[in-house]
C-alpha cells in the first residue's frame, strides 16, 4: 500500500451479539457440565452457601469457583443473596436427582462424549468434512450401543433424562381422549409412555 492510498474503515452494518451468543453458549455448556460433575447443585440444595464454603466443599480456589458460580447465576441456575448462593426453580426442577424431571443423565452422557473427544472442535470439523459421526469412536451409534451394554445404559439414561420434562408436559397439552392405543416408536426408556400413562 502506498502512502497516498486512503483506507476506508466501515462501521458494521449488524450487531455482533449473535456471535457472542454462540461463543458464550459454548462456555455455558462447559460451565454447566463442570458444575454438574462437581456436584455443585446437590451441595447448594442442602442450604445456601458462601463462596468460601463452595471452595472448601468442591476443593477449588476462589477465582475459578467465583467464575463458575457467576456463570450459573447468569444462566438462571443459581441466585445470590447476601453473599450466599442457592438454587433457582430451574435448577431444582432439572439438576437435582430427586426431581422427577432430572436432566443429569443427559449431562453425564455429554461429559462421556466430551471425554471421548466427541465434542471437540476437531471432532466437529471431521464430522463436517467426512459426513460421519464422531461420538463413541466415530462408528455407527446404534451398532456401538448394541455391542457395548454399559454404553447403551448410559445412552438410554441420558436420553431418558433429556426427555423427562417434555414427557410430563405434552400429555397435558394434547387432547388424547380419542386415542385408545398409543404407539411409542424408538423412545428407548419409555419416558413419553410414562408421561402419557401418568396423564
What does this structure look like?
The chain has about 200 residues and is mostly helical. Helix content is about 60%, strand content about 5%. The protein has helices at about 15-35, 40-45, 50-60, 60-75, 90-95, 105-115, 120-130, 140-145, 150-175, 190-199, and strands at about 50, 80, 85. It has a three-stranded antiparallel β-sheet with strand order 1-3-2. It is globular.
Give the strand line-up of the largest sheet. Answer: 1-3-2
Number of helical segments with 4 or more residues: 10
The sequence of SSEs as H and E is HHEHHEEHHHHHH
Average pLDDT works out at 87
Shape: globular
Overall radius of gyration: 22 Å
Q: What's the helical proportion of residues?
A: 55-70%
Number of strands: 3
Decide which structural class fits the backbone: mainly alpha
Briefly characterize the structure.
By secondary structure, this protein is mainly alpha-helical.
Keywords for this entry:
199 residues, mainly alpha, three-stranded antiparallel beta sheet, 10 helices, 3 strands, 59% helix
